[in-house]
Amino acid sequence: MALALGIDVGTSGLRAVVVATDRRLRVQCCHEYSQGEAAAPPDWPRLWQTGLRAVLVAVPRELRPQIGAIAVAGTSGTVMLCDGAGMPLTAPLFYNDGRAQAEAKALTALAPAGSPVLSATSSLAKLLWWRQHLPAEIWQQGQYFLHQADWIGAQLHGHLGISDYHNALKLGYDVGALRYPAWMVSLGLDALLPQVIAPGDAISLITPTMARQFGLPRDCQVCAGTTDSIAAFLASGAYTPGEAVTSLGSTLVLKLLSQQRVDDSPFGIYSHRLGDQWLVGGASNAGGAALRHFFSDEQLHHLSQRIRPDIPSSLDYYPLMQPGERFPINDPALSPRLTPRPERDVDFLHGLLESLARIEALGYERLQTLGASPLQRVYTAGGGARNQAWTAIRQRIMGCPVSAAAQTEAAYGAALLALKTLQ
Ligand code: ADP
Description:
Blueprint: E1 3-9, E2 13-20, E3 25-32, H1 44-58, E4 67-74, E5 79-82, H2 101-107, H3 123-133, H4 136-139, E6 144-147, H5 148-157, E7 162-164, E8 195-197, E9 202-205, H6 208-214, E10 221-223, E11 226-227, H7 228-235, E12 243-248, E13 252-258, E14 270-274, E15 277-284, H8 288-294, H9 297-305, H10 345-369, E16 377-381, H11 388-398, E17 402-404, H12 410-419
Parallel strand pairs: 1-4, 4-10, 4-11, 7-8, 12-16, 16-17
Antiparallel strand pairs: 1-2, 2-3, 5-6, 9-10, 12-13, 13-15, 14-15
The protein binds adenosine-5'-diphosphate (ADP).
Adenosine-5'-diphosphate binds near residues 289, 291, 382 and 386.
């Protein structure tokens, strides 16, 4: 049994990746939630269950008996309330659901300043929202509060009430002390909270029924999962302090592997635990959304080939789509700066890419000033990763090697997490 399976549960479908012990990708498969299935209002847990079965079946039959470990990555902050049998009592609340404003505000009286629970989208605020708003007879049946990845994992190993400390960060779990903090006791929610273990640690063998149905080995180990964005980081191959991954999507997201933990709520910086290291992250509102506002992807591709990355542009922009920035500059009123626009599009794009590279460099500087390990190398993910001119500009400005991440699939990162139990 030399293979590990990673599963990523996304918003449009599920992906599965099989890796060998040499980390090489053997197979990847996906399942998209079909339009018919997704008719409003979608029964998400059923779609996830159907998707899980579909990706397991899509793994070639001859490989399945060799799968020794499985881990699941789910969307951070997508949560479920289930009865004693693991049946959802109400529709899941999704990662971006911000209805728990009042609950997040009430938590400021208990949680330390800067705690990730102090946001309307935090798992804890959502749980409190359910207590406040669900009919009493539904709330009283609740026995397990789970994250998406916990629940999908439980479909495989059959044990409810277990989570990992990546998913549990926004639930209030203290990842430094590895326990729920004392201030959470007064909330009276203890009975619902999952037991939290390290991502990738073995939870239990796969259930005999699942093993039989899908031709998986009886001693296939199901491991604690992680969040989709940490799985994507793991996929990049970064593993020593100072290695970082920048995601150049609609926004700029920075993650730096560090020996020291850094948390700074005004800048929206917080740290995930990765074994005995820390994954320090920050996100800027600037990014590819501004590029897309002015140029199509095709234009970006062609114009970028005409940029001379070694020659500095004299332009200094701050490409935001609306006022307000948190990281690396904390200024809720910061105005977008997108003028003057030169005559030639290629010059304008050069200025935009260089300005975004300066924001990225300032971001890493900020993380280091606050105590993170010195930046050594940057891997890149997201739509901008393939832009070679931009890569060269970023390398010049940040003064360290910059390259595209070899892998960016969260399912691949989840498979690497599972692989640890086989080594
Ligand atoms: P998200 O998932 O955040 O929407 P993606 O990772 O899919 O983002 O990346 C999309 C972004 O990538 C868009 O904002 C687009 O402008 C940008 N993009 C696409 N192609 C290029 C390119 N060749 N150079 C720079 N940026 C690009």
